[in-house]
Amino acid sequence: MHFARSWRQQSSNLRLVGSRCASCDAIFFPERIRCTGCGSSELKDYRLSGRGTISTVTRVFEAPRGFESQVPYFAALVELEEGPIICAMLTDVDQEDVSVGKKVSMVTRRILAHGDDGPIIYAYKFTPELEG
Ligand SMILES: [Zn+2]
Q1: Three-state secondary structure of the chain
Q2: Is the dihedral of CA 67, 69, 72, 74 positive or negative?
Q3: Which residue, 8, 51, 54, 90, is the most exposed by fewest CB within 10 angstroms?
Q4: Is the dihedral of CA 119, 123, 126, 129 positive or negative?
Q5: What pLDDT score was predicted for residue 10?
Q6: What's the CA gap between 76 and 98, in Å, rounded?
Q7: What is the overall mean pLDDT for the chain?
Q8: What is the Cα 123 distance to its own chain's centre?
Q9: Distance 41 CA to ligand 1 centre (A)
Q10: Which residues, in sequence order, are bridge partners of residue 123?
């Protein structure tokens, strides 16, 4: 992971900020500079609710470099209630809590740590919403 880029993305990763098209109201995550719906370049920051539904999920046993210490973990495609679909790790979750259609919400968690005294990268993960 590139430190400068990850630092710039840190705030949008912590607050789940995407873009909303001023012309057609399409909502995107991550942020975009041009609308893929109508072609407008008038997009404004849009804070997403962080709530969504699992549309696909898998359990990862062989992680990419940097994530080895977190295996096994669940990775899911989460359809946000505003429409965008994002890929995210699930956290604080048991096997029986993981299924397609499950309601989840965003939490902030440590994603990567670079050694004992290196930078720690925080970003979003999703956890099942409490029922009832
Ligand atoms: Zn548009």
Answers
A1: CCHHHHHHHHHHHHHCEEEEECCCCCEECCCCCCCCCCCCCCEEEEECCCEEEEEEEEEECCCCCCCHHHCCEEEEEEEECCCCEEEEEECCCCHHHCCCCCEEEEEEEEEEECCCCCCEEEEEEEEECCCC
A2: negative
A3: 8
A4: positive
A5: 56
A6: 9
A7: 87
A8: 8
A9: 8
A10: 109
Count of C-beta atoms within a 10 Å radius of residue 56: 12
Tokens of 3: 């430190």
41-84 tens-digit pLDDT:
999 999 999 999 999 999 999 998 888 888 999 999 999 999 99
Please give the Cα distance from 113 to 67 (Å, whole number).
9
Task: Kindly state the tokens that stand for 126.
Answer: 């999703």
Q: How far is the centre of ligand 1, averaged over its atoms, from the C-alpha of 79 (Å)?
A: 20
Res 68: pLDDT: 86
Question: How many A from CA of 42 to the centre of ligand 1?
Answer: 8
Report the alpha-carbon distance of residue 124 to residue 104 in Å, rounded: 12
Q: Buried (b) or exposed (e) across 21-30, using 16+ Cβ within 10 A?
A: beeeebbbbe
